[in-house]
Design goal:
The structure holds 2 protein chains of 2 kinds.
Chain A: H1 11-14, E1 30-35, E2 38-43, H2 48-54, E3 78-81, E4 88-89, E5 100-102, H3 106-122, H4 137-144, E6 169-171, H5 181-189, E7 196-198, E8 205-207, H6 224-228, E9 234-236, H7 240-248, E10 253-258, H8 260-263, H9 279-289, E11 293-296, H10 298-320, E12 331-332, H11 337-346, H12 360-376, E13 383-389, H13 393-397, E14 413-416, H14 417-426, H15 448-451, H16 458-472, H17 476-479, E15 494-500, E16 525-532, H18 534-545, E17 555-559, H19 577-593, H20 603-611, H21 620-626
Parallel strand pairs in A: 1-5, 10-11, 10-13, 12-17, 13-14, 16-17
Antiparallel strand pairs in A: 1-2, 3-4, 3-5, 6-9, 7-8, 15-16
Helix pairs in contact in A: 10-12, 10-16
Chain B: H1 23-31, H2 33-43, H3 55-64, E1 71-76, H4 85-92, H5 94-108, E2 112-117, H6 125-137, E3 154-159, H7 169-176, E4 200-204, H8 205-217, H9 219-223, E5 233-240, E6 246-251, H10 256-262, E7 268-273, E8 279-282, E9 300-305, H11 310-324, H12 330-348, H13 353-369, H14 373-377, H15 379-388, H16 390-398
Parallel strand pairs in B: 1-2, 1-4, 2-3, 5-9
Antiparallel strand pairs in B: 5-6, 7-8, 7-9
Classes of the chains: A alpha/beta, B alpha/beta.
Chain lengths: 638, 399
């Protein structure tokens, strides 16, 4: 695969052009520098900031973010380097000579204070009326530097109108301090490139193509920019007022489905270590808030495996046995709405490859307002369906016009982890202290396979756990220890796995309507891939366009967000690789603790096929309620 | 007005001295790279854009960098208010500038030279392109230049789009790459990671013109002119309250007073040296010398007579920076706004000495904490005018 960087970020800022030594013990591999008169040895090319952090010297930062390329624009990390006339940005200065650095001189402290004062002078609003109150990097800096007034004044009017056009992301540019993290996130981390600096001098601001509202540009709603915004200039479109109103309305039956990733992260809103699972505490908290029923989205994740897996088998059968060339392969997953919109904008010609299966959120939405409403005898018009998601794009997804197959809006509100954290606090609940409780019937608890949908590679692993058993008749545990399909796990940008099918078993009952036997797969090699973050998705898509190795895959999992859903745009702030890894660990640990690890073992899924979707996966009713279609959007929106 | 491309009758110790087209290239190819660098080093030529980085060092670093491609960039973005000397060089002495580029390309190992021409100079584009075409015909550009095997070099001209910051070398490179004009973090420096990530030597028009003379006449010849720390001559773009504004070539070390006499300025109250980003000096400083060690300058000299209002002048400069900051770093983007607000406060008489003092401190922070030369030099005029013309400003307010 072409490993050449495809980034559109300026060459100089993609990475430092200093040699990275393999062995820091070789001559020239390390360098001795003086940090505040203390001699330390660091690998050549280490930035002053990294060197200081490794040596317990705190340097304030604002535009710096460990996920992003260097910017060096806020200047708050200014330090003195002996022999240099000007102060240097610690985040942007690679050490290649034995320099002497001082991080707290009168000049440095004054400069930092000046910079903070300048930012505050143009940062509209007050902390107590801000969504990021208590979780704002500018606020923290002001506290750290003892800001007790506005030295250079404070703007009393917002400089920009709030852009609420998007279902997902709200832009409040009057609070922007121009750190450009969102720009770098959008163009470099995600390769979408919706946000850019516009204007110069005092007119500089972050905006979109032709300054259009966010809803009218090619934003994929992934919300990664929100996760990295140090202030509240970017935040999600918060539906909690409407949800409170529904809860408080006695005529409404308000249900909530909770996705796997929020439970692994919501503790962070309450000061708990990242990577602490709060699944059952959360169930109790949701009931206390006043939700009438609490469901597990993992149920429809299990259902997705059936629908999407069946679709894959149909595609493979038609292509391999019936030699039907119209069958688009590889099949792409469709559970990440950010990815779906990315494909609709950037690779619309590949829409036929996208699984028609709805995402678990939307499948659940359709079932809640049909099957579930029937079961409990409530008019679906009185059912309010809320989805707790780690995602900002889910807000857009539930508002897609085609997502009304129940006859109503299938999911009324997409609620992010952060927003629910706020609602729980507002209800006077301290989440970590909640007693534990289970999900509600009739969907009950779901499998570990549904749970791991939250981490990159999870959908693929869940699918493989079922596919391997369906096709070979062999237990997954006999091939992969503890049913942990580790080759598809991990945070590598793109993963590629080949699974030779050496033997086949009998066709399970549920699929007997589709195929008679598996002999046509015998001797074949199943090729799958996993990509997370749209920058990585781009690499795979470009490879497919070129006819490279990914074009020969059968099934590819794509997630719009780095790390998958656990790194979603609705998750608690801050984010970093370490935090995302901790959340993923929590999900995998919970999966391993469960009895039921495979989607096809879920008795509730079997129940719903028996009672409701009687024609089985990809049948008529499931096509109506559980499948969808897409829109070729392209890059130009008139 | 039709642009004038014919040579004016100009005289000067170095740049405006005799030079035959191609002469420098021929000599450079004869003496070889090492000797070119040697002559450049002994000339002690420093960058003429204003920052004063030794040109031989820049070329040496570019030559030493390992890469598949290298570039020589001629910075013809002449955007500093009050400077127009590059216009003269490009329209009247293009042989010096382009020969200098070829010499630089040969020395550094570049195959391509790029001229970043200020957008407002579009009118000279055809003239310059025609000139380059003639050079190609005469094998002063192209393949195996003047018969030198494997020395291929050509020059392209790119137009800027009007942003002042693009005169800063890294912002210029960003602009050349098709990006928004914003300065880069340094290190890495352009000599290692410049245009398209390749080693790039960015030189001012005047620097390249000087290099052509140096190669022909020798570094020592050049170093004889000027002072010890500021060798050679400098082109001054003189404007404002004088009888003979225009471009003058004077040796470094010329006193402000001498310059004023040459241009026949009378009743001068103040001289702004170095354009909007330079410093403003009162009469008591007219004995000072124009040189890197005293008053460094890119060549702009604005002369203000007795009847000029210093506060208005300062306001004009600050308005310029508020608009022309690229807007990426905090000290420059917001700092200049605050300094302008300060000027407006003084104008209205609604200020405290304490606050003006704070703004001066802010100016000092901007000088050290801004990302590039723009923000680092933009407070110069604020600080120097407030310091040097305090009495006038205060008297005006009282009156």
């Amino acid at each position: 695969m072409d490993n050449k960087k495809t980034s559109r970020a300026p060459v100089s800022q993609q990475e430092f052009k200093v040699p990275k030594p393999v062995d820091t013990n070789t001559i020239g591999g390390s360098i001795t520098v003086e940090l505040n008169e203390k001699k330390v040895s660091v690998p050549l090319g280490t930035t002053i900031l990294e060197a200081c952090r490794q040596n317990q010297i705190h340097i304030p930062t604002l535009c710096h973010h460990t996920d992003l390329c260097v910017a060096g624009v806020c200047r708050v990390c200014a330090v003195e380097v002996e022999g240099m006339r000007t102060l240097q940005a610690a985040c942007a200065f690679p050490i290649t000579a034995p320099i002497k650095v001082k991080t707290s001189t009168p000049q440095v402290r004054k400069a930092r204070r000046h910079i903070i004062d300048l930012m505050l002078s143009e940062h509209y609003g007050e902390c107590y009326s801000c969504i990021r109150n208590g979780n704002c990097e500018l606020q923290s800096l002001a506290e750290e530097y003892g800001v007790d007034g506005y030295t250079f004044g404070h703007c009393d009017k917002p400089a920009y109108e709030i852009d609420k056009s998007s279902y997902s992301v709200v832009r409040e540019m009057s609070k922007c301090i121009l750190c450009k993290r969102c720009v770098r996130t959008c163009i470099d981390l995600q390769e979408v490139g919706v946000l850019e600096s516009i204007g110069k001098g005092d007119k500089t601001h972050i905006s979109t193509f032709m300054e259009r509202p966010l809803a009218d540009v090619i934003c994929i709603n992934c919300g990664q920019c929100i996760n990295r915004c140090p202030t509240s200039a970017l935040h999600a479109n918060d539906p909690s007022d409407e949800i409170w109103a529904a809860i408080d309305d006695p005529t409404k039956h308000v249900v909530i489905q909770t996705a796997p990733s929020p439970r692994a992260a919501i503790g962070e809103c309450f000061g708990v270590e990242p990577g602490t699972s709060m699944t059952q505490e959360l169930n109790t908290a949701l009931r206390r808030i006043g939700f009438d029923a609490v469901f597990d989205t993992n149920f429809t994740a299990d259902l997705t495996i059936f629908e999407e897996g069946t679709e894959l088998i149909i595609r493979l059968y038609k292509a391999l046995v019936e030699k039907d060339n119209s069958m688009a392969l590889p099949q792409f997953t469709s559970c990440s709405p950010g990815w779906v919109k990315y494909l609709e904008h950037f690779y619309p010609e590949f829409i036929p490859n996208l699984s028609t299966a709805k995402s678990p959120q939307q499948m659940f939405g359709a079932i809640i307002k049909t099957f579930y409403a029937q079961q409990i005898g409530v008019d679906p018009k009185d059912v309010v369906s809320v989805a707790l998601m780690p995602c900002s794009a889910k807000k857009f997804e539930c508002n897609r016009p085609e997502m009304t197959s129940s006859g109503y809006k299938d999911v009324d509100y997409g609620l992010t982890t952060r927003e629910l954290g706020k609602m729980i606090k507002e209800a006077g609940i301290y989440l970590p202290e909640m007693p534990k409780s289970h999900f509600d019937s009739p969907f009950g608890d779901a499998s570990g396979a549904g749970l791991i949908f939250g981490a990159t590679g999870g959908v693929m692993e869940a699918a493989l756990r079922s596919v391997i058993e369906f096709v070979t008749g062999v237990k997954v545990e006999d091939i992969f220890a503890d049913a942990n399909i580790t080759p598809v796990r991990g945070f590598e940008g793109v993963k590629y796995v080949e699974l030779p099918i050496t033997a086949v078993g009998p066709v399970p009952e549920i699929l007997q309507g589709l195929v008679k036997d598996w002999n046509w797969l015998k001797g074949a090699t199943l090729k799958v891939a996993v990509a997370h973050g749209t920058a990585n998705a781009k690499k795979v898509m470009d490879d497919i366009k070129r006819g490279g190795k990914f074009s020969e895959c059968h099934f590819i999992e794509f997630m719009a967000c780095p790390g998958g859903c656990i790194g979603g745009g609705g998750q608690p702030i801050p984010t970093s690789l370490e935090i995302r890894q901790a959340r993923a660990r929590a999900i995998y640990a919970e999966d391993e603790s469960l009895e039921m690890r495979k989607s096809h073992d879920n008795p509730y899924v079997k129940m719903i096929y028996e009672k409701f979707f009687k024609e089985g996966p990809c049948g008529h009713l499931s096509h109506k309620l559980l499948h969808t279609h897409y829109t070729a959007r392209g890059k130009f929106i008139s | 007005m039709e642009p004038i491309f014919n040579k004016q009758k100009r005289t000067g110790p170095v740049l405006f001295s005799e030079y035959k087209r191609g002469e420098g290239i021929k000599k450079a190819l004869e003496i070889g790279r090492e000797n070119v660098l040697f002559e450049m080093k002994s000339s002690k030529l420093k960058g003429r854009g204003g920052a004063g980085f030794p040109t031989s060092t820049k070329w040496m670093l570019t030559a030493a960098a390992k890469a598949d491609e290298k570039f020589i960039v001629c910075n013809a973005d002449e955007g500093e208010p009050g400077t127009f000397k590059d216009r003269v060089l490009l329209t009247e002495y293009p042989e010096l500038v382009f020969d200098g580029m070829v010499i630089g390309g040969y020395t550094c190992g570049a195959k391509e030279g790029l001229v970043y021409l200020r957008g407002e100079y579009e009118y000279m584009l055809k003239f310059l392109e025609d000139y380059l075409a003639q050079m190609r015909k005469d094998n002063l550009l192209g393949k195996n230049i003047l018969g030198k095997k494997d020395f291929d070099f050509d020059i392209k001209i790119r137009l800027g789009a009007g942003a002042y910051v693009c005169g800063e070398e890294t912002a210029l490179i960003e602009s050349l790459e098709g990006q928004r004009g914003e300065s880069r973090n340094r290190p890495p420096y352009p000599v290692n990671t410049g245009y398209n990530g390749r080693p790039t030597s960015v030189n001012n028009v005047e620097t390249l013109a000087a290099a052509a003379h140096i190669i022909v006449k020798g570094g020592d010849w050049y170093a004889k002119v000027g002072t010890d720390k500021s060798s050679g001559s400098k082109l001054f773009s003189v404007s404002g309250d004088c009888k003979k504004p225009g471009v003058y070539e004077l040796p470094f070390g010329t006193k402000v007073k001498e310059l004023l006499k040459i241009v026949e300025a009378e009743d001068t109250k103040a001289v702004q040296v170095g354009g909007a980003s330079g410093i403003c000096i009162p009469e008591s400083h007219f004995e000072r010398a124009l040189a890197y060690e005293d008053i460094p300058t890119g060549g702009s000299v604005m002369i203000f007579g007795k009847n000029r209002d210093m506060l208005k002048i300062l306001k004009n400069f600050m308005e310029f920076f508020v608009e022309e900051s690229c807007g990426q770093c905090t000290p420059c983007r917001i700092g200049n706004v605050k300094l302008l607000e300060g000027v407006e406060m003084i104008e209205k008489g609604e200020f405290t000495f304490e606050y003006i003092g704070k703004l001066k401190e802010l100016g000092h922070t901007m000088q050290v904490a801004s990302k590039c030369g723009l923000g680092q030099s933009s407070p110069n005029s604020f600080i120097s005018i407030i310091d040097n013309f305090k009495d006038e400003i205060l008297n005006k307010i009282e009156a």
